[in-house]
Amino acid sequence: MKRFLNKVVWITGASSGIGEATVYEFAKEGARLVISARREDELQRVKKNTNLPDTDVLVLPIDVEKQDEFPAKVKEVLKYFGSIDVLFNNAGISQRSSVIESDMEVYHKIMDINFFGVVALTKAVLPVMLKQKSGSIAVTSSISGKLGTPMRSGYCATKHALHGFFDSLRAEVWRENIQVTIICPGYIHTNISVNAISGDGSKHGRMDQNQARGISPEDCATSIVNAIAIGKQEVYIGRKEVLGVYLKRFFPGLLSRIMRNQIPK
């Protein structure tokens, strides 16, 4: 049985990595898709790879830093499909730089993309779901949204902020049959570290060893779709790094000592 048959699923950050893999997983579940990212040529490639009819995939380029455009983008989706059943906020950027070497402009950029962009799109879509009295909103946080790691202070801050916002949102909308799922991946084999920004705003350009050894985006996408399908509030995806969440809760001193040695290599 296809769990998202004919459901309209909007995925941001859909041109690569976790987002792209999740597009294909939802396609197998019978969803009609809205795929968004900045690179339209890559979105067209992803659309072709879904093997869905052209009418079932809307390519909708978005720059999450241009948040004033979001209401118009929502209208485009409604004009094309008539509803929005799932919003998966997946677009984001990481960081590789110490606090002392990170320009304030870098912190503003990371917060604008990872937090304010997500909040703005969620707020643009929320009235649609409230009117429908149904819907699912998911967001890619991180294991780093539950603890702090060196060289990622701005990234961790944005992910911690997402938990506060979406936990609050969930408490407000549950009576309206709207589910909120926070996705917390650990090390996934994507280019997130390659595309991360350094302290001066330049591209990091290197794959972290832990990232290279991470689980596949496809396995991650399967867990994400399963979590959204059952309405799970929060899901941790990865290998031994997931244990950090429980160490933080029960043995915070031990986790602190471990984190001191976690400079990305």
Write the layout of secondary structure elements.
Blueprint: E1 8-12, H1 17-28, E2 32-36, H2 40-50, E3 57-59, H3 70-81, E4 86-89, H4 104-132, E5 135-140, H5 153-173, E6 178-185, H6 209-212, H7 217-229, E7 234-237, H8 243-250, H9 252-259
Parallel strand pairs: 1-2, 1-4, 2-3, 4-5, 5-6, 6-7
Taking the sheet with the most strands, its summary is: 7 strands, parallel
Order of helices and strands: EHEHEHEHEHEHHEHH
Q: For the CA atoms, what is the radius of gyration?
A: 18 Å
CATH topology group: Rossmann fold
- The CATH superfamily is identified as NAD(P)-binding Rossmann-like Domain
Architecture, according to CATH? 3-Layer(aba) Sandwich
Give an overview in words.
The chain has a single domain, classed as Rossmann fold (3-Layer(aba) Sandwich), CATH 3.40.50.720. Helix content is 45%, strand content 13%. It has nine helices and seven strands. A seven-stranded parallel sheet has the order 3-2-1-4-5-6-7, with helices on both faces. α2 (40-50) links the parallel β2 (32-36) and β3 (57-59). α8 (243-250) packs across α9 (252-259). The mean pLDDT is 95. This is SDR family oxidoreductase. It comes from Emticicia agri.
